[in-house]
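Homework help board

Subject: predicted structure for assignment chain

Our instructor gave us this sequence and asked us to write out the predicted structure in token form, then describe one feature. I got the tokens but I'm not sure how to describe them. Can anyone check?
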Amino acid sequence: MFSTFYETARNSPFRSPLGQVQCEGAPAVTSSHELDLEPVHARQISAAAATVDSCEFGSNKYFALCGIGGILSCGTTHTFVVPLDLVKCRLQVDQAKYKNLFHGFKVTVAEEGARGLAKGWFPTLLGYSAQGLCKFGLYELFKVKYANLLGEENSYLYRTSLYLAASASAEFFADIALAPFEAAKVKIQTVPGFANTFREAVPKMLKDEGINAFYKGLVPLWMRQIPYTMMKFACFERTVELLYKYVVPKPRVECSKGEQLVVTFAAGYIAGVFCAIVSHPADVVVSKLNQSKGASAVSVAKSLGFSGMWNGLTPRIIMIGTLTALQWFIYDGVKVALGIPRPPPPEMPASLKAKLEKR
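My token output:
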């Protein structure tokens, strides 16, 4: 599968800015000496293939631009899959009415029309844009800071632990930004007649439960999102490393931008499947908790039981796998477009190699 993706990207006519274009009937040009060109004076011309970074790796501008990439990757993708998310949430809170994914779509369209599938799109856009800003921007920040604390050799040896720690730290703050919007979204999607828009939902939630209505799901949200994000970043980073080592037939530095983005998408999808499985029980608890007034995470978990906490797993695997792949693809694409530094997969430091050779 990966070889097919790789060949498609490699053969793309857009893979290089220096590709030649030959018009039909025109004489072929095999050398620049065949063209009678005058030199251009007092002007510097850079190679088209040269990549100029727009900022220094690890600078404040670098972290800010990574945050912008996070906004674009998370906000857009989560909004795109709102219909699937809506049916997934309803499957989780009312298994009797919404028997499976296709039946859930059928019932929703029959009762509310096609527009009903877009319920909750606005809090989704706001919430996941805020989350993406913190998730990606702070991940890059914590990864650099923790690596500096560990040193070059330990950062390589314990890189998986580094990815896990940096992503968990970032997600802790990202979920504080997401929680109010997630609570409103779930109310709109799962409580019939409560509200159709974010503007309607907010005052009703404040009147019924006060500010607690927006943050009562924060702890289970941490339980869902922190394991999810740890898997998302650590699995992605290591999968990219393994793909370049064992699947892609040439080093990353020799790959075109298109080929690199194909690897990014493939690694993102693999990571997404694992993310969905690890975080699913907490996701069900969050949906049920935000639907029920006055409930607690413990009481919801007890009422659901072990099997109940796996309701809606199939649509979530489809949703999260696709979502995670697209997020990484967009994030990496934004890095390319904005000229943000993109370090290659880590390699063993020369000092560590020397130490191992002496043993």
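Reply (TA_rk): Your tokens look well-formed. For the description, you could write something like this. The longest helix spans residues 257-291. That's the kind of observation they're looking for.
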